[in-house]
Amino acid sequence: MDRFWIVVMGVSGCGKSSLGAALAAEFTLPLIEGDDFHPPANVEKMRAGIALTDADRTGWLATLGRELAGHRQGAVLTCSALKRDYRERLRAATPGLRFVFMDLSREEAERRVAARAAEHMFPASLVANQFATLESPVGEPGVLAVDASAPMDRLVEQVRAWLQQDQRAGGVSPSAS
Questions:
Q1: Considering only CA atoms, which of 136, 140, 135 is closest in space to residue 175?
Q2: What is the pLDDT of residues 50-87, one digit of tens each?
Q3: What are the start-end ranges of the E strands in 24-141?
Q4: How far is 112 from 159, CA to CA, in rounded Å?
Q5: Could you say which DSSP state residue 176 is in?
Q6: What is the pTM of this model?
Q7: CA distance 108 to 45
Q8: Nearest-5° angle of CA 170, CA 98, CA 156?
Protein backbone atom coordinates (compact mmCIF):
# COMPACT_ATOMS: atom_id res chain seq x y z
CA MET A 1 0.00 0.00 0.00
CA ASP A 2 1.10 3.55 -0.63
CA ARG A 3 1.73 5.85 2.28
CA PHE A 4 -1.32 7.10 4.12
CA TRP A 5 -2.41 8.95 7.24
CA ILE A 6 -5.31 7.85 9.42
CA VAL A 7 -7.03 9.44 12.39
CA VAL A 8 -8.79 6.97 14.67
CA MET A 9 -11.54 9.12 16.17
CA GLY A 10 -14.53 9.05 18.47
CA VAL A 11 -15.66 9.80 21.99
CA SER A 12 -13.65 8.89 25.04
CA GLY A 13 -13.77 5.18 25.77
CA CYS A 14 -14.46 4.08 22.20
CA GLY A 15 -11.08 2.32 21.85
CA LYS A 16 -9.09 4.85 19.82
CA SER A 17 -5.79 3.94 21.46
CA SER A 18 -6.31 0.20 21.06
CA LEU A 19 -7.32 0.38 17.40
CA GLY A 20 -4.67 3.03 16.67
CA ALA A 21 -1.93 0.79 18.09
CA ALA A 22 -3.26 -2.22 16.18
CA LEU A 23 -3.35 -0.28 12.89
CA ALA A 24 0.12 1.20 13.46
CA ALA A 25 1.48 -2.30 14.02
CA GLU A 26 -0.44 -3.78 11.08
CA PHE A 27 0.78 -1.16 8.62
CA THR A 28 4.19 -0.49 10.21
CA LEU A 29 3.39 3.17 10.79
CA PRO A 30 4.23 5.44 13.70
CA LEU A 31 1.47 5.95 16.26
CA ILE A 32 0.74 9.49 17.41
CA GLU A 33 -1.26 9.28 20.64
CA GLY A 34 -3.23 12.54 20.61
CA ASP A 35 -3.70 12.63 24.38
CA ASP A 36 0.10 12.84 24.81
CA PHE A 37 0.07 16.29 23.16
CA HIS A 38 -2.50 18.00 25.39
CA PRO A 39 -0.92 20.94 27.22
CA PRO A 40 -0.85 20.63 31.04
CA ALA A 41 -3.73 23.11 31.42
CA ASN A 42 -6.00 20.87 29.30
CA VAL A 43 -5.03 17.79 31.30
CA GLU A 44 -5.76 19.60 34.57
CA LYS A 45 -9.18 20.70 33.31
CA MET A 46 -10.12 17.20 32.21
CA ARG A 47 -8.92 15.64 35.48
CA ALA A 48 -11.08 18.18 37.32
CA GLY A 49 -14.11 17.13 35.23
CA ILE A 50 -14.18 20.35 33.20
CA ALA A 51 -14.94 19.91 29.50
CA LEU A 52 -12.50 21.44 27.03
CA THR A 53 -13.67 24.34 24.89
CA ASP A 54 -12.91 25.04 21.25
CA ALA A 55 -10.30 27.55 22.44
CA ASP A 56 -8.67 24.88 24.63
CA ARG A 57 -8.37 22.58 21.64
CA THR A 58 -6.98 25.12 19.14
CA GLY A 59 -3.29 24.79 20.00
CA TRP A 60 -3.62 21.05 20.55
CA LEU A 61 -5.13 20.53 17.09
CA ALA A 62 -2.41 22.68 15.50
CA THR A 63 0.23 20.55 17.22
CA LEU A 64 -1.44 17.35 16.02
CA GLY A 65 -1.59 18.72 12.47
CA ARG A 66 2.16 19.44 12.57
CA GLU A 67 2.84 15.98 13.96
CA LEU A 68 0.88 14.33 11.15
CA ALA A 69 2.52 16.46 8.46
CA GLY A 70 5.95 15.73 9.91
CA HIS A 71 5.58 11.99 9.30
CA ARG A 72 6.25 11.97 5.56
CA GLN A 73 5.75 8.21 5.19
CA GLY A 74 2.36 8.17 6.91
CA ALA A 75 1.10 7.79 10.47
CA VAL A 76 -1.83 6.78 12.65
CA LEU A 77 -3.20 9.46 15.00
CA THR A 78 -5.63 8.90 17.85
CA CYS A 79 -7.76 11.99 18.41
CA SER A 80 -11.37 12.55 19.40
CA ALA A 81 -11.87 14.92 16.40
CA LEU A 82 -15.42 15.47 17.63
CA LYS A 83 -16.35 18.43 15.43
CA ARG A 84 -16.14 18.81 11.68
CA ASP A 85 -14.08 21.99 12.19
CA TYR A 86 -11.49 19.97 14.12
CA ARG A 87 -11.34 17.39 11.33
CA GLU A 88 -11.02 20.13 8.70
CA ARG A 89 -8.03 21.59 10.57
CA LEU A 90 -6.34 18.19 10.52
CA ARG A 91 -7.21 17.69 6.84
CA ALA A 92 -5.66 21.08 6.02
CA ALA A 93 -2.39 19.93 7.59
CA THR A 94 -2.41 16.57 5.79
CA PRO A 95 -4.31 16.43 2.48
CA GLY A 96 -5.82 13.01 1.82
CA LEU A 97 -6.21 12.34 5.54
CA ARG A 98 -8.61 9.52 6.35
CA PHE A 99 -10.71 9.03 9.48
CA VAL A 100 -11.89 5.84 11.14
CA PHE A 101 -14.89 6.77 13.28
CA MET A 102 -15.36 4.39 16.19
CA ASP A 103 -19.10 4.49 16.80
CA LEU A 104 -20.20 3.49 20.29
CA SER A 105 -23.27 3.94 22.46
CA ARG A 106 -23.18 6.46 25.28
CA GLU A 107 -23.88 3.73 27.82
CA GLU A 108 -20.95 1.60 26.66
CA ALA A 109 -18.62 4.62 26.54
CA GLU A 110 -19.58 5.53 30.12
CA ARG A 111 -19.00 1.94 31.26
CA ARG A 112 -15.56 1.78 29.60
CA VAL A 113 -14.41 5.16 30.90
CA ALA A 114 -15.54 4.33 34.45
CA ALA A 115 -13.65 1.02 34.27
CA ARG A 116 -10.35 2.74 33.45
CA ALA A 117 -10.76 5.72 35.80
CA ALA A 118 -7.68 4.88 37.87
CA GLU A 119 -5.32 5.01 34.88
CA HIS A 120 -6.72 7.73 32.64
CA MET A 121 -7.10 11.51 32.92
CA PHE A 122 -10.63 11.57 31.48
CA PRO A 123 -13.46 11.06 34.01
CA ALA A 124 -16.74 9.33 33.15
CA SER A 125 -18.57 12.56 34.06
CA LEU A 126 -17.36 14.11 30.78
CA VAL A 127 -18.68 11.41 28.46
CA ALA A 128 -22.09 13.11 28.12
CA ASN A 129 -20.34 16.30 26.99
CA GLN A 130 -18.45 14.37 24.33
CA PHE A 131 -21.68 13.01 22.90
CA ALA A 132 -23.22 16.50 22.98
CA THR A 133 -20.18 17.89 21.15
CA LEU A 134 -19.87 15.08 18.58
CA GLU A 135 -20.73 16.03 15.00
CA SER A 136 -20.90 12.70 13.23
CA PRO A 137 -18.38 12.43 10.39
CA VAL A 138 -20.55 9.94 8.51
CA GLY A 139 -21.01 11.29 5.00
CA GLU A 140 -17.74 13.22 4.93
CA PRO A 141 -15.16 12.08 2.36
CA GLY A 142 -12.47 9.72 3.58
CA VAL A 143 -14.42 8.43 6.58
CA LEU A 144 -15.02 4.83 7.58
CA ALA A 145 -17.49 4.25 10.43
CA VAL A 146 -16.93 1.08 12.44
CA ASP A 147 -18.73 -0.53 15.36
CA ALA A 148 -16.38 0.13 18.29
CA SER A 149 -17.73 -2.93 20.11
CA ALA A 150 -16.55 -5.30 17.34
CA PRO A 151 -13.50 -7.54 17.95
CA MET A 152 -10.16 -5.82 17.25
CA ASP A 153 -9.12 -8.24 14.49
CA ARG A 154 -12.38 -7.54 12.66
CA LEU A 155 -11.86 -3.77 12.98
CA VAL A 156 -8.34 -4.03 11.59
CA GLU A 157 -9.60 -6.12 8.67
CA GLN A 158 -12.37 -3.60 7.94
CA VAL A 159 -9.84 -0.77 7.82
CA ARG A 160 -7.46 -2.81 5.62
CA ALA A 161 -10.24 -3.64 3.14
CA TRP A 162 -11.37 0.01 3.06
CA LEU A 163 -7.85 1.27 2.41
CA GLN A 164 -7.31 -1.30 -0.35
CA GLN A 165 -10.60 -0.33 -1.97
CA ASP A 166 -9.63 3.33 -1.65
CA GLN A 167 -6.29 2.72 -3.35
CA ARG A 168 -7.93 0.86 -6.21
CA ALA A 169 -10.28 3.83 -6.60
CA GLY A 170 -7.30 6.18 -6.72
CA GLY A 171 -7.74 8.40 -3.68
CA VAL A 172 -9.82 9.28 -0.68
CA SER A 173 -12.99 7.28 -0.97
CA PRO A 174 -16.42 8.51 -0.13
CA SER A 175 -17.75 7.79 3.32
CA ALA A 176 -18.19 4.15 4.18
CA SER A 177 -20.03 2.57 7.07
A1: 140
A2: 888 999 999 999 999 999 999 999 999 999 999 999 99
A3: 31-33, 75-78, 98-103
A4: 23
A5: B
A6: 0.89
A7: 23
A8: 95
